[in-house]
């Protein structure tokens, strides 16, 4: 066994860490307050290929793998978890299922713009969406929460169950559809409303929001895969999404731990840095253990995915552990900072809010049976 990343991945990590520290980090507080990622940062990330890390170069992506994807998210979230979440949702909820299941025509038409950052994606795979088939299109209705990119998404991937003329579900099997937002700058596009939350707890700059569709149209060519393959699309999304959440959580924990260590070295009580206190040293040790465990669980799941091995259970386990570990690490960091831990200028309160929001997002999905789906019967069909 080799507990070492490939050299090219480490070189990429170094480049992304520099970018995160010099470009992403300085504006994190402002973006958190404004609840958006500014267009300039979107373009800068596109120039680095961050919107299509695991997508092959033939389709405009960076040609990386799942492990590279995890490392990118980890380094971004070390400075700003919202930025990492925007990338993760775009990739896992639309670009990745499209690459795995799309027709050649769909991939040639849509993937280059998505992987190149010229179009932004999001997805919804929960219950509550239904569709009717018409002569020329599909008509989709329903509502639910959007995890990220509600403020700027150009394309949405949604799963919906077919309903009869009387309004009853014809089948519990869902189908997947790529729905176009007419104007990414608009919050409403006729029969499709995509509104950003005004006061989210954390991950604010990732633009979580609410989706409402009332007869929104998707062309026949916009169905992803065959009829009834919505669960497969959701499974592809859920696996990479769990890996992404684990990596983001590990990055949050790393950032909080580094901030706590730096503060503990500088803060003195009775003339001695508080890092010398046994209680503080024990907290820092526990934080390091949780952070490392989260990181290697994420890496293991990513490696299994890129090797074509069963990985759904490993991905879900990594996500479930890492988000809880991130919350624990951030709580310890706030306690080490004392009263300063609640001040925006020190950053750890934002990290705690982001970690709690990440944890809440997984709980919402669990309530929607996504976690049960990928951990239960047939959970490794995607690998």
TrEMBL record:
Pfam families, alphabetized: Acyl-CoA_dh_1, Acyl-CoA_dh_N
Q: Where is the Acyl-CoA dehydrogenase/oxidase N-terminal domain?
A: 7-117
Q: Which PANTHER family match?
A: ACYL-COA DEHYDROGENASE, ISOVALERYL-COA DEHYDROGENASE, MITOCHONDRIAL-RELATED
The name this protein carries in UniProt is Acyl-CoA dehydrogenase family protein
- Entry similarity comment: Belongs to the acyl-CoA dehydrogenase family.
Gene3D superfamilies xrefs:
Acyl-CoA dehydrogenase/oxidase, N-terminal domain, Butyryl-CoA Dehydrogenase, subunit A, domain 2, Butyryl-CoA Dehydrogenase, subunit A, domain 3
Recorded hits in InterPro entries, A to Z, give: Acyl-CoA_DH_CS, Acyl-CoA_Oxase/DH_mid-dom_sf, AcylCo_DH-like_C, AcylCo_DH/oxidase_C, AcylCoA_DH/ox_N, AcylCoA_DH/ox_N_sf, AcylCoA_DH/oxidase_NM_dom_sf
Record the organism: Paenibacillus thailandensis
Question: Which keywords accompany this UniProt record?
Answer: FAD, Flavoprotein
Domain Acyl-CoA dehydrogenase/oxidase C-terminal intervals: 229-359
């Amino acid at each position: 066994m080799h507990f070492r990343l490939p050299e090219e991945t480490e070189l990429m990590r170094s480049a992304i860490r520099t970018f995160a520290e010099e470009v992403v980090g300085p504006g994190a507080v402002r973006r958190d307050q404004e609840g958006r990622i500014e267009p300039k940062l979107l373009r800068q990330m596109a120039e680095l290929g961050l919107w299509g890390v695991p997508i092959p170069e033939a389709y405009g992506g960076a040609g990386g793998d799942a492990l590279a994807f995890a490392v990118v998210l980890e380094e971004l979230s070390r400075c700003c978890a919202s930025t990492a979440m925007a990338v993760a949702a775009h990739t896992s909820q639309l670009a990745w299922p499209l690459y795995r299941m799309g027709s050649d025509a769909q991939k040639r038409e849509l993937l280059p713009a998505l992987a190149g950052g010229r179009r932004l994606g999001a997805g919804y795979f929960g219950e509550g969406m239904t569709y009717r088939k018409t002569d020329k299109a599909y008509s989709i209705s329903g509502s639910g929460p959007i995890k990220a990119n509600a403020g700027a998404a150009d394309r949405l991937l949604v799963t919906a169950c077919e309903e009869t003329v009387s309004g009853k579900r014809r089948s519990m099997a869902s189908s997947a559809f790529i729905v176009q937002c007419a104007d990414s700058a608009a919050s409403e596009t006729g029969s499709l409303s995509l509104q950003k939350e005004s006061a989210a707890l954390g991950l604010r700059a990732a633009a979580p929001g609410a989706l409402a569709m009332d007869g929104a149209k998707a062309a026949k060519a916009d169905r992803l895969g065959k009829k009834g393959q919505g669960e497969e699309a959701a499974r592809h999304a859920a696996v990479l999404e769990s890996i992404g959440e684990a990596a983001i959580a590990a990055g949050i924990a790393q950032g909080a731990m580094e901030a706590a260590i730096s503060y503990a070295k500088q803060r003195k009580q009775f003339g001695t840095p508080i890092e010398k206190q046994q209680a503080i040293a024990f907290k820092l040790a526990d934080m390091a253990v949780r952070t490392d465990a989260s990181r290697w669980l994420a890496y293991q799941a990513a490696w299994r995915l890129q090797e074509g091995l069963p990985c759904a259970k490993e991905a879900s386990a990594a996500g479930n552990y890492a988000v809880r570990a991130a919350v624990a690490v951030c709580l310890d960091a706030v306690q080490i900072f004392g009263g300063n831990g609640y001040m925006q200028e020190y950053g750890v309160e934002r990290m705690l809010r982001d970690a709690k929001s990440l944890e809440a997002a997984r709980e919402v999905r669990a309530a929607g049976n996504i976690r049960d789906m990928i951990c239960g019967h047939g959970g490794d069909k995607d690998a």
